[in-house]
Amino acid sequence: MCKLLDIDKSKTTPWHPQTNGFLERSHKTLKTYLRSFVDKDNNWDRLLCYAMFCYNTTVHSSTSYTPYELVFGRKPNIPSTFFKEPEPQYNYDNYVIDLKRMMQEAHKIARENLIKKKVLFYFVIREISHKFVILDFEFFPIDRYSKVLISGAISNSLDQFKITKLEGRPWYLPKGHEEVRPMSDREMHRAMMEIHRIFKKKTEIREACLKQLKISIKTSLNTLNPKFIKNYLDKGSKVCVIILFCGHSDKDILKKLNIYDYTMLNILCYDKNNNQSFYLQLENLKNKKMICEFDLGKIDKQGRLLNLVETHKLICNKKHKVTYAHDPCTDVRFTKCIFDYIIRRYRYENLIKHCY
Ligand SMILES: [Zn+2]
């Protein structure tokens, strides 16, 4: 049977949890659930199977799937009534009602724990009317008014913030009302020479641009185009809100690509009093209204704006895998961490009042 199902049997030694870390981790979660039940209910042993049911039908942060899906290959059938506030029913003659109550209670506790532990914030987003799309473009200026768009990355709350790279033929974004257009091979080779000139001293960004241009010449991907981005933003029925970090250029690019009918929120980290005290701010890019701000304290830094890497470092202590500087996928991941922080402090209910 193991052969048929492609199962590898591995034997573990006692007192060495590292051997089967995945299982041990699930025990940790189960213990957390049980601790909540023990506090509330003294018949926790009866609730054990419902706690397990919750665990098995909850999206797992490391796999992005529920354990149920991974075993049965389809989504579990959970009655939608679980998402309503539980209405305790104490009629013990009626087993069905009691079962429903306990399942609702278990679901409520599991959900509260998840929110409390700030592990799966997208889990909450799923239940509201808006979706949040984090977006970042990589580009370089050709002259004072024209830009070359070379890559980007996009991710959204409906998709649990799985990052999609925007890659393909670079776009020439000319000044004024001239139409945007994909670049020809000749223009791309000329652009490479331009990059050496524009970023003569900025080694890091120069190498990132050159690397991306070389990839773009060879790639078969075609996600860096207005149609793909627009379809991505319009998918599903929820209101789309675009989240950018220091996103004035990204906003201009979206406008050039004729993608403009969306709420755009901009995150920045600004020394507003010019005394090296930095504030994390969220503003509506279109009407320039400040939505919220958080004091991040004194930081020794020249200049009044912190960049993405500096801001992320203040907020998140996770060691993310960084491929190379200015990789849009890394930038989207960092922006997500910062957006997470804002949502946790400001809360969704307040935020969506500014997203119409
Ligand atoms: Zn982070």
Automatic annotation (TrEMBL):
Annotated GO MF terms: nucleic acid binding
UniProt-listed InterPro entries: Integrase_cat-core, Retrovirus_Pol_polyprotein, RNaseH-like_sf, RNaseH_sf
Membrane spanning residue stretches: none
Record domain Integrase catalytic: where: 1-75
GO biological process: DNA integration
Protein's name in the database: Uncharacterized protein LOC112691253
Organism: Sipha flava
Gene: LOC112691253
